[in-house]
Amino acid sequence: MTDFDGSNHRDISSSFFSASTTNSPADKSKNKGGKGSKKQVFESYMTSEEVSQGLKRGELIQGQLRINPKKYQEAFIPSPNDKRDIFLDGIVSRNRALNGDVVVVQVLPPEQWKVNRTLCEGASESETKREHVVQKKLERTPRPDVIVEDRYNDRDELVSKVQNIALSDKGTVVYIVEKKHSRAATGFLKFLPDKPFAMFAPVDHRVPRINVPLADCPLDFSSRPGDYISTLFICRITNWSTDSNFAEGRLAKTLGQAGEIEPETEGILTEYDVDFSEFSDEVLDCLPKNLPWTIPPEEMKKRRDLRKECIFTIDPATARDLDDALSCKQLPDGNFELGVHIADVSYFVEEDNSLDSIASRRATSVYMVQKVIPMLPRLLCEELCSLNPLTDRLTFSVIWKITPEGKILSEWFGRSVICSCVKLSYDHAQSMIEAPDKMFSAEELPPVDPTHPIDEIHQAVLNLHSIAKNLRAQRFSGGALRLDQLKLSFTLDKETMMPQGCYVYQYRDSNKLVEEFMLLANIATANHIYRKFPGLALLRRHPPPKAKMVDELQELCDQLGIDIDLSSAGALHKSLNTTLGDDEYTSARKEVLTHMCSRPMQMALYFCTGVVKEEQQFKHYALNVPLYTHFTSPIRRYADIIVHRLLASSLSCGPHLGLSTEEVEKQASHCNDRKTVSKRVQELSSELFFGVFVKECGPLDSEAMVMGVLDQSFDVLVLRYGVQKRIYCKSVSGLDSFRHHKVGKKSELTLVWTPDDLEKAPVEQIISVFTLVDVQLRADGAPMKYSAVLKRPGDSDS
């Protein structure tokens, strides 16, 4: 991991990171009139007593705020009755809450719905005429697409279409239950003449502009503000009063030049409150002192010794934190003894010490393109816990007796010791699967334990592959669903860590093999710990998709002529894998349809079984299993460590559990939050690197397929790179005009291109879902940002 070099940054005051805004209701005595008082912009918050009573009476609704990244005036919270999301119109309605905050909302009576007048007029016109035409103003300078696109909020743009907003309940925030947003932002400073403060403009438009004291700014900022025009800063909000459109804050750090990878990366981590500091001495004191560490003899006696078995790991070639290993031995009766062996992290992370405390706070490792922010210190992640080859390691094992068809005959859980005989990459395992009869030489593989011939390892991989194929087929025929979305990977320069190339990651049989047995182990563990601790187990549930959104998607698919069955996870999986045509664009159409089907899906969640009363709600929708948990990645997920502790306690091979239902639920909720953050940070890291790649190597040409159509723009999947971009019709060069047409849920744009030869008729291009277009990705003026530029039909080589 490349550490951030603090010497390169001007650390204005690290103490400001502890500054926080108050979570209590705003003081009601302020701004209530009187001579010289300022006019209130925002309503004061209700008291906690008023909120409690209002929630009990059903007059108020609690939920997590989502602000649309493309239209920051629009925000939503989920409706409790599975109807349309509740719409918060404008910044005043949000009442100083930020994206991700848990808020209490009062639904307004219809007479107070102050929806933008033009929106309402547009809605009525759209409803009556079903078509409107926008004439392009050629003299208008196109506005670059500078807002970071947020995959989580794609559906908000669709929900926010005029006709949907017109039908949504409107609300206003009356209380902030939990400030989940970090209140930190990256952005730029703007000098304000004759003011004792500067204006901080966040890159994320969902965060308000912030007044910061000039004393926090660089010493020569007032005299030479132009020198800092492209300097990226971190600011933290300290207060936002009811009488101001602007928040107050303190400048915390100068990051460096906008558009450079390290300053931008540190900005992302800080905004999302990811702890990337070095582990303290107090934490490191919890680690074993005598190195090189060996397993104590008394510990060996408590465990099943599997060191002579043929056990190996299969991971990405660059992986250093090896959580899991596999074994597969054929038995005389033709069945197999199949094992999943997981690093025994809970042996090293004892309950309630400093190491446990930091791991529970971090909750997950965060994987960025060029580095990992680990949950645990490097000594554990990469050495003592990592199942490195030719080294004795402590593990938790699940061992089954299983038939070649995948039927489980018996199951064993227990603490064990293994010695992995080889560290295979996914490429090595894939080569073995694709060449079942080949004799692999030692030169083609990493170092192998000489007690296990290469042929033995090869045969074990083939047996695992065969059983995994059967298990997978049974899962999907039994009603499971997998929504694969394209993932962008990068090749980096080893010296500069700059992107040299990028490609769409290939998910192959070797990946499927490992995934299948991790799922099997997680399902088995979930059933075991729930049986032993029905009120204390930490499981993972996946609620079914939002019914209203499913109905709307079904209607849209029907009108597009797509034969899709959304009645269950299994029916959807079957539909997605029914051929969408039979040509070179079949996989692209499937990717677009998969994306459409992902919008109604809800997030999977950790929970404590003692809190969710209805067992039916434990179910995992996509996997179509009644019980599921995470057991297989304790090096990088804290939820798995809790599951390991529960498992150890159930087998009487661990300390007595000091956990309560409330503690497990609190930790489950925190793990949910940090997992969401980790995923978003990973996406932003990928977007950052791709933005730099476009700038350094662009412009880039590619075919693209339309994924969604709005009234003045449309979204495309750029096929060569797997990225999604929005194209705004008003910014398309060479376009004379465009018309939007809508029938039911089906939306179409007709683009009218100005002919090259004025004597010829204009060229019309129809844009609807699955339309193929040619685009060029070009760097924008803003750092890291790029646009997808639509090419004129027939100009694919221009």
TrEMBL record:
Keywords of the record: Cell cycle, Cell division, Cytoplasm, Exonuclease, Hydrolase, Magnesium, Manganese, Metal-binding, Mitosis, Nuclease, RNA-binding
Family: Belongs to the RNR ribonuclease family. DIS3L2 subfamily.
Feature type site, description Important for catalytic activity: D323
Single GO MF annotation: poly(U) RNA binding
Binding residues annotated for Mg(2+), in chain numbering: D315, D324
Protein's name according to its UniProt entry: DIS3-like exonuclease 2
Gene3D superfamilies the UniProt entry points to: 2.40.50.690, 2.40.50.700, Nucleic acid-binding proteins
KW Cell division (keyword) present: yes
InterPro entries assigned to the protein according to its UniProt record, in alphabetical order: Dis3_CSD2, DIS3L2, Dis3l2-like_C, NA-bd_OB-fold, RNase_II/R, RNase_II/R_CS, RNR_Ribonuclease, Rrp44_CSD1
Cofactor dependency: Mg(2+); Mn(2+)
Function statement: 3'-5'-exoribonuclease that specifically recognizes RNAs polyuridylated at their 3' end and mediates their degradation. Component of an exosome-independent RNA degradation pathway that mediates degradation of both mRNAs and miRNAs that have been polyuridylated by a terminal uridylyltransferase, such as ZCCHC11/TUT4. Mediates degradation of cytoplasmic mRNAs that have been deadenylated and subsequently uridylated at their 3'. Mediates degradation of uridylated pre-let-7 miRNAs, contributing to the maintenance of embryonic stem (ES) cells. 3'-5'-exoribonuclease that specifically recognizes RNAs polyuridylated at their 3' end and mediates their degradation. Component of an exosome-independent RNA degradation pathway that mediates degradation of both mRNAs and miRNAs that have been polyuridylated by a terminal uridylyltransferase. Essential for correct mitosis, and negatively regulates cell proliferation.
Domain (RNB) ranges: 303-653
Uppermost EC category: hydrolase
